[in-house]
Amino acid sequence: MIKRYGVSGSAGTGGQALPFAAAAAADGWLYVSGQTPMRDGEIIVGGIVEQSRLAIQNCLDIVAEAGFEPADIVHMQVFLSDARYFPSFNRVFRSFFAEHPPARVCCVADLVVDCMVEVDMRCFNAKFKY
């Protein structure tokens, strides 16, 4: 069985409907779609620190909505629009995950929306095995 979160009502930049789930859960795993530093359908104004905080928090909000916890996060992917953001992103990352750091990959990419960072998460919790 697969449970999908945020299918109806998900909106991207400018409030457009998105053709994918915010997250999908199956067999104890939760896969959170890439989140950008977006609030109310718009990318926030700010530097890499502010944008990183919101992108991670947006993922964590979906994780919590699905009943998972930060300690359940197994892996993250991070996409930065500029390699020079790496040290600043790491400081923000450490502030969120000092106790339970997940495995992670970080790469530089030309992002689809006009922002500095996008992150996604994979979580596992055996209590959600169907």
UniProtKB/TrEMBL annotation:
Coiled coil: none annotated. It comes from the Bacteria. It holds the Pfam family Ribonuc_L-PSP. InterPro entries: RutC-like_sf (IPR035959), YjgF/YER057c/UK114 (IPR006175). Belongs to the RutC family. This is RidA family protein. It comes from Chromobacterium fluminis. The lineage of its organism: Bacteria, Pseudomonadati, Pseudomonadota, Betaproteobacteria, Neisseriales.
